[in-house]
Amino acid sequence: MVSRVIPVDPFDLVVFGGTGDLARRKILPALYQRFCAGQVPDDAQIIGAARSDLNDDGYRKLAADALVEFGKADDPGAADVHAFLARLRYVQLDARGDAGWPELRDLLPEDRVRAFYLSVAPSLFGDLAERIRGHGLATDQARVVVEKPFGHDLASARALNRSLADHFDESQIYRIDHYLGKETVQNLMAIRFGNLLFEPLWNSRYVDHIQITVAETVGVGGRGEYYDRAGAMRDMVQNHMMQLLCLIAMEPPARFQPDEVRDEKLKVIRALKDVGLQDVVRGQYAAFARDGADHPSYRDAVGDAASTTESYVAIKAEIENWRWIGTPFYLRTGKRLMARSSVIEVVFKDTPYSIFGADAGDNANVLSIRLQPNEGITLEVTIKEPGPGGMRLINVPLDMSFSTALGEREPVPDAYERLIMDVIRGNQTLFMRGDEVEAAWAWTDPIIDGWEDRGDRPEPYDGDSAGPTAAEKLIANDGRVWRAIRP
Ligand code: NAD
Predict the structure, then answer these.
(1) Contact in structure between 431 and 174 (CB atoms under 8 Å)
(2) What is the CATH number of the domain that holds 69?
(3) 3-state secondary structure labels for all residues of 298-319
(4) What is the pLDDT of residues 257-313, one digit of tens each?
(5) What's the whole-number average pLDDT of the chain?
(6) Which one of 100, 124, 147 terminates a domain?
(7) By the 8 A CB rule, do 153 and 441 touch?
(8) Shared-domain flag, residues 283 and 199
């Protein structure tokens, strides 16, 4: 099956921080893939801008190495790599100085889309926005793209929003949460709003509770320094998991248009009840051995024997609106867990009355939407256990793996490929609006402040496990259990 490639008009994309890790690992490979798919028009330009003393050829060499290192090209001399590299230019500049900016301006034709990707530390966003405007580069067709983390708390997110809003209209600002660029995350909207089947049941009358799990087997790896300042709450919950929560819980937007969708997501965040300390569990992974290899504890991995940062968090969240009041959303995410799995599980209520009697057992229907790995949907339905002995009920899965159902297809584009092309097309649907980000921080800040004030150490948990025991209690207090974490 051939995927549809929607052509775009010629554009200029300036990657500030174009020599950095994100540019080499994600942005340049994504652009190369789109180039190979025929979506980068002939006279489009990709301009790396950073402090390193490079010329165009030096930058092309850096880009070629990145394509090989990150698995997008085997042969840096191949014709399509060569053709892609010819689109690249480089400008040496400092976000905090004025040298280099006139050269950048001279490279940019006036009357077409220009996107400025700020792939630099957030502390430079304001300087860059000011210089883009000050050097006359902020045309009507200009867009800025910024990366997570968008702030460390509400105050810093507000400051970042202001520093961008001083120079750009909200319609020109694209805040990336790469989770929203994932095919399976967008599919949540298709599943909910493309099927009549689910909507009548999608409320607290029929849904007992919802679990959202983002489990990783990896530890903090090379991101220890950053991660130890952030923790699972800032790194995962405030952005990715809240986006999943919004997509699952929001009202149907009137149209699939950027502000219609973002308005509905914002309403969900604003309806979230404040979380008490009894409804949050934090964990930190201990040292353990897996497959004969020893793995360091979280504290050893980040090099701080007294770190109180969480590598796991579980939260009971409640949405105070007509649809969801009485249906808790249990969120959990952690590193070094027993399996890698991102899944949303909608657990329906029991039938109102069992005609088969109490001994038959009751089994609630569960709709699982697997985001990764093995993307797909499973609906657990109740049937009679085969064999003699009367009516005993068991659950069996109606299981649909998307890869099996859809058959051989072209590889799905990486989230960055989709998001960068959406920036060029001017479609903000999959980007977070400023008020959405602030509302998310306004919900998570008091939770974080609560544990920071108390100076608690997160509960240690075994690697290869489902997380800390306190998380089991969190949900058991409500008479419920976590679903198994399965790969
Ligand atoms: P990095 O340190 O590898 O690269 C930073 C880049 O900024 C380099 O090109 C450097 O030359 C440039 N730079 C630094 N100071 C500058 C200045 N004064 N003027 C002009 N250029 C300057 O960082 P990174 O990992 O590529 O991250 C970039 C941004 O993306 C950060 O905000 C980070 O939080 C975010 N991010 C990164 C990743 C990732 O996987 N690396 C993932 C998500 C978000």
Answers:
(1) yes
(2) 3.40.50.720
(3) HHHHHCCCCCCCCCEEEEEECE
(4) 999 999 999 999 999 999 998 999 999 999 998 888 899 999 999 999 999 999 999
(5) 94
(6) 147
(7) yes
(8) yes
Q: Contact 335/312 with Cβ under 8 angstroms?
A: yes
CA neighbor of 349 nearest in space, from 479, 245, 470: 479
pLDDT tens per residue, range 98-137? 999 999 999 999 999 999 999 999 999 999 999 999 999 9
Query: Does any domain span residue 417?
Result: no
Pocket test for ligand 1, best of 22, 101, 179, 218 (most atoms within 8 A of CB): 22
Instruction: Give percent of the chain above pLDDT 90.
Output: 82
- For residues 35 and 29, what is the distance between their CA atoms, to the nearest angstrom? 10
CA of 121 to the centre of ligand 1 (A): 5
State yes or no: is 135 an active-site residue. Answer: no
Give, in order, the Cα–Cα distances in Å from 324 to each of 26, 31, 206. Answer: 38, 41, 10
Give the Å distance between the CA of 105 and the centre of ligand 1.
22
User: Model confidence at 2, in pLDDT bands (50, 70, 90)?
Assistant: very low
Q: Which of 147, 170, 192 is the last residue of a domain?
A: 147
Comparison of pLDDT for 190 and 390, the residue scoring more: 190
Q: Are 267 and 136 contained in the same domain?
A: no
Q: How far apart (Å, rounded) are the C-alpha atoms in residues 452 and 448? A: 6
Is residue 142 located within the same domain as residue 39? yes
50 in a structural domain: yes
Q: Judge whether 88 lies within some domain.
A: yes
The pLDDT > 70 percentage for the chain reads 99
Same structural domain, 103 and 198? no
Mutation probe of ligand 1 site: the residue of 24, 62, 116, 119 with most atoms within 8 A of C-beta: 119
Residue 62 domain flag: yes
* Number of domains the chain contains: 2
Q: What is the pLDDT of residues 134-159, one digit of tens each?
A: 999 999 999 999 998 999 999 999 99
Domain membership of residue 213 as a residue range: 180-407+433-476
| Ligand 1 centroid, distance to 20 Cα (angstroms) | 5
- Domain shared by 196 and 138, yes or no: no
Per-residue pLDDT at 328: 98
Q: Which of 408, 407, 383 is nearest to 395 (CA)?
A: 383
Asked whether residue 363 carries a pLDDT value surpassing 90, the answer given is no
Ligand 1 pocket member 69 (CB < 6 A): no
Say what the pTM is: 0.94
